[in-house]
Amino acid sequence: MRNEFGTAERVTTLDEVSHRVDSTAKTYPALVGENLGHTTLKFSLPINQLLQMSQVANSHNIKNIVSLENEYEAQRGLVVTHAKKLAQYTLMGLVKSEIKSQEKIKSKVSSQIHEVQNNLGRPAYTSLQPMVTNIRTCDPGGGNIPAVDVGETYGQTTGIYNVTLSNKHVLWVVDGQHRIEGFRMVLDFLKHVLRTCKYPRQADISLYKPSGINNDQIISEEILGFWEAVYDWAMNRATVSVECHLGLNKHEEQQLFYDLNSKGKKVATGLSYKFDHTDPINTAVKNIVLPMLPFVPNLRDKDQWVKGQDDGRLTRTEVNKITQILCLGKNVSRHITPKEIQDKYDLIQTFWETLLSIKHFGEPDWREKTVAAQSVTLKALAFTVHRLVFSVNSLPREEAIKCTQRLFEAIRSDLLSFSFDNPIWRVVVLPKVEREKILKGINKSLSLNEDKVQTYGFVFENTNKVRYGNRHNDIMVHLGDAICWQLNLPSREK
Q1: HEC profile for 182-240?
Q2: Where are the domains of the chain?
Q3: What is the pLDDT of residues 423-454, one digit of tens each?
Q4: Buried-state track 313-337, b at ≥16 Cβ within 10 A, e below 16
Q5: What is the pLDDT at residue 209?
Q6: Residue 472, number of CB atoms within 10 A of its CB
């Protein structure tokens, strides 16, 4: 049979057509390129669509998801805390996007909505990093994936093709599994809010809760409408860039994962603090602490015990860690709202003003002059202040304030001496018998693991000078106990 143009036509039946139709197939505009000689696709997908199309081949999923039992592993294990941080970052960006959208149409943004943003954080800029994926079920280079050239511009192809993918073309995540899980958390959070009109209790999806509101309190109609608009951003408007490799085998995909996660150079911690405008602790340091210091903190974490290198400066990492311990009581970061830290601004200022009163603070070669030059000593002070203010068996507020003031006054007046002659600084690195000799009764207030004492530091022969080791999380706690014993402040046990 021939058509009107004289070309032979293949006659088919509807039944035959139905058997060849893939109802899950969809067409996506994609940029076709060459990555070191390998054909790749690059396209943008809404967050929700990416979640539907992708899968993560880590050991947990392969063991627990029946449909993945025959797949090979090409991912590390998921770290939920990291995924949650990315979820909170994503939520921050979505909130910022909706507020910006409202401002563009000259709609007045209410104080309630701005409060949501203030509690989450106001980053200078937010952006989702591109994902890297692999389609395992296609020919190498994507030879069996249908693609139609969109057209030419000025006689040259644009490289943009309409690419047809279906459910069988799973996007296996090579780089970005924590972002994927973060996106799931964001959608779960927003769905819970819109379904219940309350903020969730579950820790895994509790991404936002303003201070002063309990989980049983109904969210106002205005804020609920705002969260609905944010949900629309997440479902339909916020897109993620995806680089898709085509038909990599097991060894190739595993190699790509390794290369992507091992070849890049990690940003120095000090420099990351300088550039990070999102973290509330970092913001407090920039706004309060840095203007007070008599020096610009060192961005490099160098060994200042080397002769001639002790310029009297703390590193930026040390300044941030000390402030973090003061506010949170530990040297491990967790997500905190800006408001949580803003409520502690007065405490941060008073604490650092008190540190500046320490004799020889910030002087060149101060490690030879005072034990305060070792950052773990300042961490111990920060830990002790936090414990007194927030967590000593729920001390009455007035008593907690009085105890903290006594500690600050002891530092300012040199009653708590930071001279190496003060034996309190040596007790945590000495055996039990020697501790009791120099400070009778001290052992009753210390809960030291005698097997670990030798790892906490040492005292130089024929001097009283102590040098602490690297186990700062342990040392600062025991130093804090010793400080409280000397100043007769409430102990952790009492």
Answers
A1: HHHHHHHHHHHHHHHCCCCCCCCCCCCCCCCCCCCCCCCHHHHHHHHHHHHHHHHHCEE
A2: 25-262, 269-487
A3: 999 988 888 888 888 888 888 888 888 888 88
A4: bbbbbbbbbbbbbbbbbeeeeebbb
A5: 78
A6: 20
